[in-house]
Amino acid sequence: MGLFLSPLIMLAVSIVYFSKGDDESRLWVRLLFSLHGMFAALLYIGALAYWQMTQASHAWAATPYLLLHIISLASIAYAFVYFPGPKRWHLLQIVSLFCMVQTVFIGSMALTGEWL
């Protein structure tokens, strides 16, 4: 369960952002400001699945994995600007960012096969 707690937390934060955004926002706007946790969790699960299927040891695989997390960070920045709900919900990003750092670290190890 330890490997999957962080992505579940990030997914929960995304669900909160999506549900707390006002209903008058367009769907694509709500998706953009709630994408961060869902996308990072999918990247992480994909990295673990890739490692499980191939016993990955590809040093090059960490670079695209890290670069794809820029999309999640951009979604967080978008949420700070365009989220129409109460700004106190942004405090959840502290937890989400901590979880993202953990999943980036573990996912990078899974893709490169260089475990600590």
From TrEMBL:
Keyword list, A-Z: Membrane, Transmembrane, Transmembrane helix
Superkingdom of origin organism: Bacteria
TM stretches of this protein: 28-51, 63-83, 89-111
Protein name, UniProt field: Uncharacterized protein
Originating species: Duganella guangzhouensis
